[in-house]
Amino acid sequence: MGQTDWSLDRGTSFTRCTAERIAETNPNTGAPIFPGCQGTSEGALLTASPLSLPGVLRSGDVRNYALGVRGGGDQYSFYANVSHDLEQGVNLNSEFGRSSARANFTFNPMDQLDFQVNFNYVHDRTSMPNGNNAGTIIQNALIWVPGAAGLSRNQVNDTFRDQEEQFSAYENWLRGDHAIFGTTVNYRPATWFVNRFTVGADVASREAQRWIAPGSAYSPTTGQLTQGSPKNTIYTVDYAGTISNDLTSALTSALSFGAQYNYSKYQNSVAQGSDFPSSTTKDIAFSTFQTGWTELSEVKKLGFYGQEQIGWNDRLFLTGALRVDNSSVFGSDIKQIYYPKVSASYVISEEPFFRNYSWIDQLRLRAAWGQAGNSPGPFAAIQTYTFTQTTDPTTGVKGLALVRNTKGNPDVKPERGSEIEAGFDLGLLGGRLGGEFTYYDKTTSDALVSVALPPSQGWAVPSYLANLGTIKNSGVEMSLNATPVQSRILTWDAQVGFSTNSNELAGFGLPDTTRLQQPFGLTALVQRNVVGYPLGGYWVRDPVLTDGGDPTQPGDYVGGPMRYLGPSMPTRQGSLSSTFTILGNVTLYALFDYRGGNYLYNHSRDATCQARVCEAVNDADVPEAEKAKLLAGIQTNTALYTEKADFVKFRNLSLTYTLPRGFSERFGSDRASITLAGQNLGFLYKPYTGFDPETNFIGINDPGAQWAGVRVDYWNQPMLRRITASLDVTF
Amino acid sequence: MKIQPRDSRRRWALRALVLVGSISLFAGCGDVLDVDNPSLVTPGQVEGQTTMLDKFVAGIEANWRIGYGWNASSGAAMTDETIFGHGWTPWNEYDRRKITPQGITSLGYPFITAAIASGELYTKEVEKLAGPDSLKSAPVAAAYAYTGYSYLSAAQLYCQVVIDGSAQEDAAAYARAVELLHKAADVASAAGVDSIAHMANLGIAKAYLDLGQRDSAIVYAQKVPANWSGMWVRYTFDADFNKWTFYNLYKRTAGFKSTVEFNQGVAPQEAWKLDTRNGGTLPDLRTPYQTDSLTTLMGGWNKPRYAYVPYVPSQFSSYTPGNSNLISEDDDIRFASGLEAQYIIAEASLNGGAGGWSEGQVRDFVDARRRVGAPDAGDYAGDDLFAELRHQKLLDFYLAGFRYPDLRRYLNQYGINEFPTGPLNGFVGTAAPEDYGTDTCWPISPLE
């Protein structure tokens, strides 16, 4: 069963029945704007929590069934597994279902040769709620105006009513078939010569449909049906070999080499109809306006590498490597790219002088420097036109118009990341205590940045990618694991992890920094890429009272100068987990997560305050001047709505009971266990006033997304709280 | 043959073989990276292709058309035609007459400038494709005409215009517009395409009127037949709704009857200008609006803001006199007509232009226009006549993208300021939160 942490008990929107609101009437009809305030005393506080109304949200079911079989003989082994998952979202029309089958087969006909064959097939179906920025359930709930007339100031309450009808007016689903096939051959003609050859195919074929019924609250209100069939195909061929030499009795040499070829293809055909006569005629042929288009892109990559590793007494290893890449996405002027790498690893605990420290199991020191690349998108290098639909101004006949589309950049190439890292791995007390520490410093040169073009050049895509930027990332990563208690009755394993990251746009590469594209869309008000500051950092304005202005009047404030507030991505992350094993068959596991050092623009609160339904502007204890600042206007007071996003979350708790072996065997099983688990159970620390500072309106981990760096709470749903019970039986 | 582990020479030979093999393989693998991307349209696929002639011309018109839709909406917000309920930059900047360069970048500006850029580029391609017939080619005439209108629109809307990569004063854009429109008129006449010839002459007349060259304005306006029904900016559906021709006017007028769209409507304080019938108590037949309901505009301010819903005005394709229909998304807008030419002659004549009409002829014209919208005639003279001429033009071309350039010209040429001033319109029973700004033109993008 699932449930989200909406914190609905206190209400999510508020109306204070001031004298002005009690008296306010529609100037045309004379009807009161706030009928709910009529008959109440001045100062009465009305609250509402529409998300808790019946039929708005639900506790969705989560089910998972899996069956696996494993076996083999002297020269072969196999494993097969089938599973089925069903997960309902909290919105009535959100659901995810998946059926999958997986099989691995290994065959080793002789000592020098073995084959591995893997096959994985997944069929899934996803139904998604409306993600548009208008008409979402959360938005309509949060700006509900308690006590207002049906057609209120923001015309919201009527939309929210009949929510089930609105759910049914929106349908957005994706059905997919995904097959992955791979085979690997390992051939070892001699102990000093090993080879691995892998081929793979990954084919994902999907059907997608989005239906917006005419007359619904969603846009376009005249109805729209979009159908697509995206297909991704990836083929890979990979060879790796190693030749080992003993140079002397103490020195060893290992030459590794290999090549990879990767082919990926994306194709899609989309048909769309708009303006439907009724909600029951769900066929594109019955729409007034029909359009369709196809999408296709191919990318090919070829890479070679060579690596030499020198070992000394099995404790000191020095490695040097060089990689060469070429790709169809590189500009026409780019032939190949080279990436060097060197590293050293020293197991100092193997030295004779360490034998006096018997409590140290192992201490390994390591350091590395290397370069790697990140390629641009498939068409970044190419200048293109595109066709757009048009209508002849004289005849009214529909036709095509040729429009300049992308400028392209024939010099575009992968950005190059150079990273230095150093650290150590430590094991103590016979494995009871251990840890790792790494410091890293990465500089990305030739970073791919989007350069804004002068609009007067007339490109439909107003920017192009260029290798201009310099981006720096540095920080530490450390972890500690310990077994403080180890006995027949109780074992306690604990892990602590902590990491930091400092991110900075160190350079742009052009003197005119206005050319640095600010791809933030929704958060253009508050996010900036500025040289010398973190990428996508928050830049905010404070409300400043105008000369002679009345501090209680929102209109008397203007926006102060934009100032840097802080990063939008966490600069610190940590986790603390413990596993308690009691009497060998009861296991209790708990995990706490921490993230912090960053901020999040709380658009939801900004908009609810502007709509005068947030708690602060209806709180009698908040000074009028503070309310005025909150109401001062969406461009003048972003400092008030960009909040610290630190949190400590109780992420996981699970309890597993392994049934006594004798009991299991009565049912013919080798092992059986029952687990009760919970995820996202609550916050231990959260200064942020919104639901969940961990969420973001747009997926930030998709570098291909248009607004990849956007960080905003835009009517976000909090992370789902999930409670599961599972039974695991092994035969 | 199994290699012996102790055969060191063979190991080194194998290493050398790997090295040479890798280099050879990499050097010889260039072709394996060739890809096929048929959905891309590269310059080599379209330039020099005669089948693309009409597509190039349509490309100029399409950009200008989309920009026209945006600017008709923003221009209405900038003037007394409508108020505009939206809390976010850049939309509210037009409503407040406080327009920043940052705000300009994302609305109609890119399309108008793209029309100029593609116009300059495409006209050369179109001339080349038309070959020896280019001086009597209808597509060449259309390419000149729409490129000229793109310059004209830019000059009428923006404080400066970027020409050949540098920001220049409006006069340079007007000059380039006139040059291109002369070519358009000549080629269209030779090609026998009257509509383009009329459109070009009208454009020249508009440019001269804006520049204060009223004698010339009259000359070219008189070349346009008074009964010419005109040219249309046509509705075109696009999967990208930002490119719907009249997305803004449709969404923000008709759309604001729904609960989730932006909104744009007649300010209660300005509605009297549309009321000409029944002694000034009923809307003019050309500018009907929903008088029985004041609707609250969508957010942006901390108190309710009210407007009347406009119905289809007279330059829109679905117009019928005195209708009570919301503007539909597939309405076309007439952007050039013989009627506009008549207004140019009247205005230029009243303000000293030679070769045009007498004051009596202007009065007759004004009276005729009054009778179109209301049954009465007036008896105006002098400044009052010019004021009524301006009023009638507001009514005849309501929401069709004319009012903002007209107000700029009234201010620049005659010192008459009819931009909204004082407290923001739309607030009823409560004080407006701020006063209108003083902007009279739109800045160009800071990215120029």
Distance N to C terminus of chain A: 28 Å
Which two chains form the greatest contact, residue counts included? A-B, 99 and 92 residues
The residue ranges of chain B in which pLDDT falls below 50 over 5 or more consecutive positions are 1-5
Rg of Cα set of chain B: 28 Å
What is the helical fraction of chain A, as a range of percent?
A: under 10%
Distance between the termini of chain B: 71 Å
Q: What is the makeup of the main sheet of chain B? A: 2 strands, antiparallel
Which class best fits the helix and strand makeup of chain B? mainly alpha
Percentage beta strand of chain A: over 45%
Number of helices of chain B: 15
**Could you say which overall geometry of chain A the principal axes of the C-alpha atoms support?**
globular
- Share in helix of chain B: 40-55%
Give the averaged pLDDT of chain A, no decimals. 87
> What fraction strand of chain B?
5-15%
Shape descriptor of chain B reads: globular
Oligomer: heterodimer
The secondary-structure class of chain A comes to mainly beta
Can you tell me about this structure?
The complex is a heterodimer of chains A (731) and B (448). With 731 residues, chain A is mainly beta. Chain A has 7 helices and 35 strands. In chain A, the strands form 6 sheets. Chain A has a 24-stranded antiparallel beta sheet that branches. In chain A, strands 24-25-28 form a 3-stranded antiparallel beta sheet, with no helix packed on it. Chain A has a two-stranded antiparallel sheet with strand order 2-3. The longest helix of chain A is centred in the C-terminal third of the chain and has 8 residues, at 603-610. Chain B is mainly alpha-helical. Helices cover 48% and strands 6% of the residues of chain B. Chain B has helices at residues 8-27, 43-46, 53-78, 91-96, 101-104, 109-130, 138-157, 170-191, 194-211, 214-221, 247-254, 338-350, 359-373, 382-396, 403-414; strands at 83-85, 161-163, 166-168, 231-233, 263-265, 275-277, 282-283, 295-296, 306-307, 333-336. A two-stranded antiparallel sheet of chain B has the order 1-5. In chain B, helix 3 (53-78) runs parallel beside helix 7 (138-157) and helix 7 (138-157) runs parallel beside helix 9. Chain B is globular, with a radius of gyration of 28 Å. Chains A and B meet through strand 11, strand 12, strand 13, strand 14 and strand 17 of A and helix 1, helix 2, helix 3, helix 6 and strand 4 of B.
